[in-house]
Design a protein that fits this description.
1 helix; 45 residues; mainly alpha
Length: 45
């Protein structure tokens, strides 16, 4: 593997780390909001 390929793969690898962390945070937030909206208190009229 050439030096250029080595550098490109390292840049791609390190660029995916924040993307994975942010995507995981968003997924957990969506699941939590979904659970909370299903289990919220029902308004008694």
């Amino acid at each position: 593997m050439s030096t250029l390929e080595y550098v490109i793969w390292h840049i791609l690898g390190y660029a995916t780390i924040p993307v994975i962390i942010i995507a995981g945070f968003i997924a957990v937030a969506v699941v939590c909001i979904g659970i909370l909206s299903v289990t919220k208190d029902k308004k008694i009229d």
